[in-house]
Structures are given as structure tokens and as C-alpha cells.
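Why do we care about 3D structure at all? Because function follows from shape, and shape follows, mostly, from sequence. That is the central idea of this module. The next example makes it concrete: a single protein chain, its amino acid sequence, and then its structure expressed as C-alpha cells.
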Amino acid sequence: MALKISAPRGTKDVLPGDVYKWQFVERVFRETAGLFGYREHRFPTFEHTELFVRGVGDTTDVVQKEMYTFTDKGGRSVTLRPEGTASVVRSFLEHSLYAAGLPVKSCYLISNFRYEKPQEGRLREFHQFGAECIGSAEPIADAELIGLADAYFRRLGIRGLALELNSIGCPECRPKFHSALRAYFDGRKNELCDTCLTRLERNPMRILDCKNPACAELAKSAPTVLDFLCDDCKTHFDRTKALLTEMGIPFSINPNIVRGLDYYTRTVFEFVSDQIGAQGTVCGGGRYDDLVSELGGQPMPALGFAGGVERLLLVMEAQGVRIPEEDGCDLFVAVAGEEAMLPVQRLVQELRFAGVSVERDLMGRALKAQMKYASRIRARYCVVVGEEEIQNQKVMLKDMQTGEQVPIELNAQAIRAKLPKV
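And the structure:
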């Protein structure tokens, strides 16, 4: 019996018949990001492990449980990218992108890797769209970034995503919140999972993000960060909310949002759907004003978001959002007889160089089967080339939608001129 090899658990093929959906959401994201002045940024699939330990935070589930980390042949510890922000900041610093002026606005479409339990919309290799804005401390940057995500969803035709906001403070006010959390959880240690027991002293806010049901239940009654914000953080948050209201973007306050990565400060947000089950967050992000300095740069404010393409497509499917299908080829050239084989190949090549999308039979089908194949691949037009057509240098150009046929010269220039799309 031949060995059957399947895709690794937690990964998924995107088949040729479905790729158009991915291309659509990617194209709309690039276009929308461009309207806001964001330019695409590409970076490696793997990085030195230290980048994510320092950037994402060693008390997070991502670093503690989910990273794909290995030692390469040079003895270096490297990690498959679990998220995009740390890589963007590393690249920003390594290439001195700040020298061209601030803010630096980047967007990306990437695959990431996390070892977690696969489920609908959550895979071990997953894909994200994201945007990062480095250099601005102003609330308008928060509002504009959220506005970019909101505009993207609207342009896709998605309805009913709920925007939830919170502020998790800054290094000045957060210690008071941490003290309150420790006091609250300290008397409930016997109810915490082992991971959260280790977080209690180092970063008790991570307990609020724990997926363990017992810890999640305890977190519901924990102190809320909004009660501990300093005046600057309150002012920043109030101004962000006012700007979003002015932009016509509805939101609600959710004091339980802390996000799953340690680098966040001040504004955090999530766009949530109730149509894709328990894992309802489609997109999330916020400020990370200390990450640039944590990774070796000068102190510099920054913010960003990322969303899951798989979850986005699930929402679109649940809502019945129509994604335009790929067009078929412009022209199918059917071959009638061995004498036409070489002339047809020359014609096809010339048409392709002229920008016409052309298909021809590669399977040795009979003429009738070729015409059925042309219909199946949704060819817009078709010509049949045989010995007679070669002798007369004339073919009939058939409109595959209407059935109408018109005579035309058998050369690339004449055919191209008759195809309205090209």
C-alpha cells in the first residue's frame, strides 16, 4: 500500500478553487491600508527566539506554551513567527526607518505559527492582516488606526462587528492595578491553574487573559483597570473615544480586555463577532508605547492591530457576503487536427505576450470534449483552429455567453482587437 501523507494537524490547504476568496480580502486590505497611508512591510518567517521572549513577553501563553522554537544547525535558537508586531519593530530599528520621518506606518499580510488546540477559525499555521503605526503618542493615531480596521470591514461588506474598547494604563498607573489584582487573587490561589500561580507575582494581569474556565470565572469579579488609570491615561482614553464618536464609529467599553501579549499599554480594542462561536475576536490591537525601547531603541510610542484571515472568511460566509469569483480565461483555442498543433501553440504564445489570458487543450481531447472543457473553465471566447482555418487564415470567434460568432483573421493582433476585455 502506498504511503498516504496528509497535511500536519492544525494546518489547512487553500485549494485553487478557493484562492480567489483569499485574494479578494487581501486586495481590499492593501487598498484600504493605502487610503490611510500604510505601506506594505515584509519580514522573515522566523526570527531569533529572544525577539519574541522580550517583545511578546515571557509570561504570555504565546511564549510559555505556543511557540515553535528550535535550534538551527548553527546552534542558534530560532522561532517561527507567532505574531507580526515584534518583527515590524525589529525591522524598524534595524533599518533606521525612523530616519525618514515619523510616523512610520506599515501594513502586512503574513502567516504565523502557534502550537495550540486546532479548532474552527484557529489553526497552528494561521494568517493575519495587520497594521502598525510607530512614532505618534496622540489619541488621533489610536482613532485613525481603529478607523482603518473599521473601514476595511465595511468595504468587505461585513455587518454587525462590535468594537470593544479598554485602556490598560501605563507604567505609572498599572502598578496600583497589579497590587489590587494580587490582593484579589492571593486569597483564591487554590482556584488558580498552575500557570496563573506563576503569573500572580510576575504579571497578575495575565490571569485575566487565561483560557482556563476556573480562572476565567474568577476574573469576572476582579478589580477593573479603569478604576486605576492616571490622569494622563484617562485624558488619552477620553480623547480617543471622542474622536471615534466624531468619526461615526460605535463602540462599547469592555474593562476585561487586556489582550494576550505583554507589550500593550493604554488603548486596547477588539472587533468581535457573535457568528463564529466562542473564539469571536476577528481583529484586535492597541498601543505598545514601551516595545521600541524594550527591543533596544529610543523610547517611542507605537500602536497596531492584527486580525485573522480565517476568522474573517468565516464571518463573511456566515453573513452571506458575496466574494467576486475569478473571471475565466479570455480565450480558449481549440485544436482540430494534428496540422493545427504547432500554429496554435505559436498563436497562443503571441496572445499571452500581448496580455490575453489564453488556454488550450493539454490532454489530447477530441474537439467536442475541448468545447465542453472551454465551458467548464468559463472561457469568455473561443476559436477553433483546424487545417481549413490555417489555409484560409480565418476563424470564427465565438462568444461563449451569447453563442454569437463572427469571422476574424487568424492572427494575434486581430483576435486581441476583438476581445473587449483586453
